[in-house]
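Lab channel / #folding
Pinned by the channel admin:
"Please post every new chain as: sequence first, then the structure tokens as a reply. Keep commentary short and put observations after the output so the thread stays searchable."

First post following the new format, from NK:
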Amino acid sequence: MVYTTNLQHHFNHSSQQTKENTHRTKSTTLSRAQLQFNPSTNRRASLVALTIAIPLVATDIPSQAASTPPFPSPSPSSQAVATTDLFSITDRVYLDIGMCPEAIRQNRTLGDKSVLCSDPVSLGRLNIGLYGDAAPGTVATFKTLISSGALNGTQFSKILPGQWLIAGKQGSKRQGFLEPPPEIQQGPSNPDLLNSSAFKLRHTRPGILSLNLSENEDEDGIRLRPGYKALSFIITAGPGAVALDGENIVFGQVEGGGDGVDVVSAICSVPTFSPSQNMLNYNKFAMLLGDDRAEKVRKTWGRPLKAVVITGSGLL
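Reply from TO:
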């Protein structure tokens, strides 16, 4: 108990320091009259507006932490509703994770269905509890992704130890990205995006699941498609995740039982494309000059050099 208290105190202290160095404009409300895409607005408002408006019309990276803090204590194994210090868990799902020896398979042929390896090495299973009361729309959509199998064969697009992991980037399934099922494409917009209370839960510790709005990597061509929905999700991996507060919708957590801790730690250990100090300095200088290419380069940082793949998923 003393260890847990000290750990939480250390995490809270680190989180506060990170927040002091984070300069973001945050907004938790959005009127219907503002539902027009405007790149000059803050990122959350722009993406929320784009996510809602299209269906209506057409139908400084923080320093990487040395290690990932431990996860919370295991929840009861019962499938009944369980209460955590964050919110009530109403549903449970799982994600099986594997790793390929390379980011893109070199021996692929013209008829291959995927550029990823066909037999990833298992990294284990993530058992996830979902907050259906706090974010009902987001949870319903995520469960549809799970039950439809749409996430199977997709990869984590970004790994930032001490901060977060990103999965669910939309694109070609052959490239390891998510192709939304028809029931999501043709379904209603996520009501949580217009509910300010859905943005109140915080990214207080590792293993938090969040609907990715502020760090969304979907290409503009995909975002402009009729029926586009924001589906990318984040799994927090350290105190740097407090920078996500107020801009993304927390809707679940990796539960502490099983091998959840080991799986997230293993993902964080995968080598990624990381900038050298000279590259960091040049990039900062380019950003000061207003060079748009600087932001494009920054988006490549944290991309895994070995594909980390969701090999299976299901409802519990």
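NK: The CA atoms of residues 161 and 268 lie 5 Å apart.
TO: also worth noting, The helical segments are 2-20, 43-58, 136-148, 182-185, 220-223, 260-268, 277-288, 292-298.
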